[in-house]
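Researcher: Quick test of sequence recovery. C-alpha cells follow.
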C-alpha cells in the first residue's frame, strides 16, 4: 500500500512539474551572430515567434522594452503571435507599438488559423502597416545590404509547405544567407 501511495505522489509531482514547464510564458531571448562573405554590413534582426497572445506586463512593457533594448533594424514575426484560446488584446498592443518604430513582416502560424479569426488577424496586422507575407518575398535594403525575406502561411492551411520564415517550432527556422 505504501509503494502505491509513493508512486501516486511521484506521478502527481511529475504531472505538476510538467504543467508548470508546458505553460511557461516567460520571455526568452536568443542571440546569434552570423557571418558570411555575402553580408557586407551589420544587420540586426528580431525574429519573434510563438507569443500566443501572452501578457508581458501593463501595455506589454516587458516585451516591448526587451525588443527596444536590442534596437533591431527589422522585425520578423514568425507565427503563433495570436492564440486560438486567448483574447487578441495583447498581440494587438505589441504589434501596433512595434510597427510604429520598426519595419515589420509577418507570417501566420497554426494558432491563428485555429482561432477561426485568421482574416481579422491578417487585416488588423496589415492595418498596422505590417507586411503579411502570404507566399510572397520582399527584397529589402538594410544598412546598404540587400536581403530577401519570404514567408509562407502555416502548412495547415492546405497550401504547399515551404520553410523560409516560420514559427511554430518555438524558435523558427532560419536560412541566412
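Model:
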Amino acid at each position: 500500500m505504501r509503494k502505491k501511495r509513493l508512486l501516486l505522489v511521484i506521478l502527481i509531482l511529475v504531472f505538476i512539474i510538467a504543467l508548470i514547464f508546458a505553460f511557461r510564458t516567460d520571455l526568452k531571448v536568443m542571440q546569434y551572430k552570423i557571418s558570411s562573405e555575402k553580408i557586407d554590413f551589420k544587420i540586426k534582426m528580431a525574429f519573434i515567434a510563438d507569443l500566443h497572445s501572452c501578457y508581458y506586463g501593463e501595455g506589454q512593457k516587458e516585451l516591448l522594452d526587451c525588443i527596444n533594448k536590442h534596437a533591431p533594424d527589422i522585425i520578423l514575426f514568425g507565427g503563433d503571435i495570436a492564440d486560438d484560446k486567448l483574447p487578441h488584446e495583447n498581440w494587438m498592443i505589441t504589434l501596433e507599438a512595434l510597427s510604429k518604430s520598426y519595419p515589420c513582416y509577418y507570417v501566420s502560424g497554426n494558432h491563428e488559423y485555429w482561432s477561426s479569426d485568421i482574416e481579422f488577424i491578417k487585416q488588423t496586422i496589415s492595418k498596422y502597416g505590417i507586411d503579411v507575407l502570404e507566399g510572397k518575398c520582399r527584397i529589402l535594403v538594410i544598412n546598404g545590404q540587400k536581403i530577401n525575406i519570404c514567408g509562407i502561411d502555416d502548412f495547415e492551411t492546405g497550401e504547399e509547405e515551404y520553410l523560409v520564415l516560420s514559427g511554430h517550432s518555438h524558435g523558427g527556422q532560419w536560412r541566412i544567407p
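Strands lie at 45-48, 74-78, 104-107, 131-132, 136-142, 145-151.
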